């Protein structure tokens, strides 16, 4: 059984930076797709950034965060990070870490079976 725990988010002014971390306990298999997601009112969570754990480290980003956010993996710690730069007020949201074990690939539109509890990111103008 895999459990995910996000680090504390934070509150910053527009243009600032934050780093989120997600520590996974339990066995993380080859081909696990992990991601960071945030809420969209009235819709399913937006998949912000994905990383294919032990699947070549392939990453994907939503257009809204491309060139501003970077997702990375700490192999030794079973941890992923989300480096968020040049934050905008519209980035304000609850961010969730999620995992899809034994994933065939790591692409947008997928369903994740494991979720963290979420962490709040607030960006003021």
What can you tell me about this protein's structure?
Strand 5 and strand 6 form a beta hairpin. The strands form two sheets. Strands 2, 4, 5, 6, 9, 10 and 11 form a seven-stranded mixed beta sheet that branches. A four-stranded antiparallel beta sheet has the order 1-3-8-7, with no helix packed on it. The chain is globular, with a radius of gyration of 14 Å. The chain has 125 residues and is mainly β. The model has no long low-confidence stretch (mean pLDDT 92). It is 0% helix and 50% strand. The protein contains no helices and eleven strands.
Give a quick summary of the entry:
The protein is mostly beta strands and 125 residues long. It has no helices and eleven strands.
Furnish the topology, listing elements before pairings.
Blueprint: E1 3-6, E2 10-13, E3 18-25, E4 32-38, E5 46-53, E6 59-61, E7 69-74, E8 79-84, E9 93-100, E10 114-115, E11 119-124
Alpha carbon gyration radius: 14 Å
Series of H and E elements: EEEEEEEEEEE
Class from helix and strand fractions: mainly beta
Average the pLDDT over all residues and give the rounded result.
92
Shape: globular
User: How many beta-strand runs?
Assistant: 11
How far apart, in Å, are the first and last alpha carbons?
Answer: 41 Å
* Largest pleated sheet: 7 strands, mixed
Number of helices: 0
Low-confidence stretches: none
How much of the sequence is in beta strands?
over 45%
| Secondary structure: helix percent | under 10%
């Amino acid at each position: 059984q895999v459990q995910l725990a996000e680090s504390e988010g934070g509150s910053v002014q527009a243009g600032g930076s934050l780093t989120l971390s997600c520590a996974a306990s339990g066995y993380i298999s080859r081909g696990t797709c992990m991601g960071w997601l945030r809420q969209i009112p009235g819709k399913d969570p937006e998949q912000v950034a994905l990383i294919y754990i032990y699947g070549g480290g392939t990453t994907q980003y939503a257009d809204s965060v491309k060139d501003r956010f970077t997702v990375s993996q700490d192999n030794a710690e079973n941890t992923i990070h989300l480096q968020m730069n040049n934050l905008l007020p519209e980035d304000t949201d609850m961010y969730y870490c999620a995992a899809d074990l034994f994933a065939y690939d790591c692409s947008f539109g997928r369903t994740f079976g494991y979720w963290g509890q979420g962490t709040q990111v607030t960006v003021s103008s």
